[in-house]
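Quick illustration for those who missed Monday's session on complexes.
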Amino acid sequence: MAQEVIKIRGGQTLSGTVNNHGAKNSAVAIIPAAILAEDTVTISGLPEISDVNTLVSLLGDLNINTTLEGSTLNVDPKSIENAPLPNNKVESLRASYYMMGAMLGRFNKCVIGLPGGCPLGPRPIDQHIKGFKALGAEIDESSDTSMKLVADKLVGANIFLDIVSVGATINIMLAAVRAEGQTIIENAAKEPEVVDVAAFLSSLGADIKGAGTSTIKINGVSKLHGSNHQVIPDRIEAGTYMCIAAACGDDIKLNNIIPTHIEPLAVKMKELGVDIQVDDDSVSIKRNTPYKSVDIKTLVYPGFATDLQQPITPLLFLTEGVSFVTETIYPARFRHVEELQKMGANIHSADGTATIKPSQLKGAEVYASDLRAGACLIVAGLLAEGVTTIYNVKHIYRGYTNIVKTLSALGADIWTEEI
Ligand code: EPU
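Prediction with EPU bound:
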C-alpha cells in the first residue's frame, strides 16, 4: 500500500509568522466530554489533526450528529445511543480512553476497545480504573480486545491518585460530574489541559473547583446543558515551532500562545542562549548559535514537558559542550535516538537519560516511532546537510496541523511524496 513520507532538504534559514492552533491534548478530551451534555455544544479552536477526526467519527458511532468545519465542531447529542465502541478506531489513539469516563458519566455503562496511541513504553490505565471503581463502577477486563464498565449509579468518592496522571485526572472528572454527591481527586494533575477540560465542563453547568491545583472538588449535578467553548492554544505545538525557530529561524513570530504555558520551555531556551522575546500572546525567536549545553529533566507541569524533550534535542547538537536529557514521565521515550544516530548525531541513551554532544547532522532515511519523535526528526531534518526522508508520518499528522505547509511557507525545503 502506498504511504506518504516527508522529505526535507536541510540548511535553509526560516522566517515569518506561524499561527499556533488549539491544544491537541485538550481537544481529545473535550470532544468525548461533549457527550455529557444534553444540548448542542460548539467547540472552536480545534487543531486540524487526524486524532480530532477519529474522535468525531467515534461520536458518529454513538449516533450523535456532528459537523466539523475547519477548527469548529458542532455536537448535537440529542439522538445519542449507547453503542459498543469498536476496537480499530479506539486503538488508533490513546485518548479514546476518555470515551470511558464520558460514557460512564452519561450512561453508567460502556463497552469499549482497549486504547492505543504512541508507543512510549508501558502506559497503564490503572489509576483511571481505580477512580471509576471508587465511583461505583464494576469493570470487566476479561476480554483481550475490549473492556466493559457498568455501574448501578455513580456516587462521589475521595480518590487519591498514586501517580500524577493527566489522563486519570480528566477521566475521573468526566465520570464524576454527573455522579451523586462530591468527588475529591487528590494528587491531581495540574496541566493546563486539565484546567481547560474543567472550564469546558463548567460551561456545561458542572460544579468543579480546584482544577490547576493538586486537589479537585466536584459536586455532581444531574444534568448538563449545551455551551460554546474555545480550546486553549497548544503549548506543545508552540514549543515545537519554538525549537524549529531556535534551530534555523531568522526572526520567527509565533502567535496564539499563553506565556505561562510556554514558560518552562522559554526558561530552558534562555539558558541555552536562544534569542527569545515573549509578549502577551506571541513569542519571537531568532537562532543565536553556538548555544550553551544544558541539562533537561522532564517533570509534570509546570516542569519541563515530556512532550518537548524530543523536539528540543536537536538544539543540543548546536552547543559547545555535553548536554543531558532525563525522562522521568516515560523513561522509554527515546526511540528518536537511534534515528538521530542514523543522521550522524553524537547521542546515546541509557537508563532514562540521553547524552548529547555537538554534531553536524546529515540527511538520512529515518522512522517516526511516535508523534514527538516525528517532531524531533523534522527539527533534525531542517538542520541536516542533504535530504532527510521521514517514514511513518501518520504519527506526525496525529498532532500537528498542516505542518509541511506551514514550514514551507517559512522557507523550508520540505515536501511530501507517495512511495
Ligand atoms: N500512568 C500510570 N497509570 C495510569 C495513568 C498513567 O502508571 O493509570 C503513568 C504513565 O505510564 C506515565 C505517567 O503515569 O508514566 C503519566 O501519564 P499520564 O497519565 O499523565 O499521561 P497520559 O494522560 O496518558 C497525556 C498526554 C501525553 C503526555 C502526558 C504527560 C494526552 C492524550 N496525552 O498522556 O501526550 O505526554 O499526558 O504530560 O493528553 C503527546 O501529546 O505526544 C503525548 C503523548
